[in-house]
Write a structure and sequence with these properties.
This protein is α+β, with helices and mostly antiparallel strands. The protein is 41% helix and 15% strand.
Length: 244
């Protein structure tokens, strides 16, 4: 490892990955040019972090530390299933672990093994303070859940892309939602022949598609789409109610 930490490079090594360990909601994995593999699993509900280290120089040995609210509750060399202190092992890679792009995860570690409590390697020009002196929590980082956003005191503000690029990225997704929504609404009306039920269905579809944007597509819901479904649904509901 270099004498002077290159935090900007370390940060780019970390990538979100699939959750494979039960009880954790988020995973980050990094691989160094030397072949070392670092992994961090995060359970934000219980402030629980699982750090995994596979040094390339140790022939495949795997070290795992489970940390709860800043206290190591398990330290183990997995290959031989033996307990041992991992302070020196993990501290040797502390600069890389400190660049995990998740402030909440690092705060759960509370500086154990000499790790930073706030993610390093950010471009300071991309950070903006809010009135309280903390970084704004109004926008989410890629892959960040709603609960992470609420708990995160700081954020990295991503530069906005040009409008035409944002429209291009979202067009087919929104077109898909509109097509499916209209199709389902048509089927509901053909089955019930009731404007009241049709109104309920359109309103529910609006909130459903907005929720899918937030939870599965990891992006902010398009408010206009939700409002169109709700407003049109309200119109049909009112029309059906008045005609009864």
């Amino acid at each position: 490892m270099a004498n002077k930490p290159d935090y900007l490079s370390y940060r780019t090594w970390w990538k979100p990955s699939r959750v494979k360990t039960a009880g954790y909601q988020k995973v980050y994995v990094a691989k160094t040019p030397e072949g070392d593999i670092l992994r961090a699993d995060y359970n934000f509900q219980e402030d629980l972090v699982r750090l995994e280290l596979k040094p390339a120089s140790e022939g495949g040995k795997t070290y795992v530390a489970v940390v709860k609210k800043g206290t190591a509750i398990r330290e183990q060399e997995v290959t031989q299933n033996r307990n041992l202190s991992l302070k020196r092992k993990i501290a040797a890679f502390k600069h890389i672990f400190s660049c995990i792009p998740d402030d909440s995860l690092l705060q759960s570690l509370s500086g154990i093994y000499g790790l930073a409590k706030v993610s390093l390697g950010r471009d300071e020009s991309d950070l903006s303070l809010d009135k309280s002196g903390d970084y704004s929590t109004k926008e989410s980082l890629p892959g960040e859940s709603f609960f992470d956003r609420l708990r995160r005191p700081r954020r990295q503000k991503a530069p906005k892309e040009p409008l035409w690029q944002r429209v291009k990225q979202r067009f087919w997704g929104e077109f898909h939602d509109a097509t499916v929504g209209v199709g389902l609404a048509f089927l509901v009306y053909q089955y019930f022949f009731d404007y009241v039920i049709l109104g309920f269905a359109l309103g529910a579809l609006g909130f459903l598609f907005g929720g899918l944007d937030w939870t599965l597509r990891k992006r902010d819901p398009l408010l206009a789409k939700v409002l169109i479904f709700v407003v049109v649904g309200s119109y049909f509901f009112y029309t059906g109610y008045r005609s009864q």
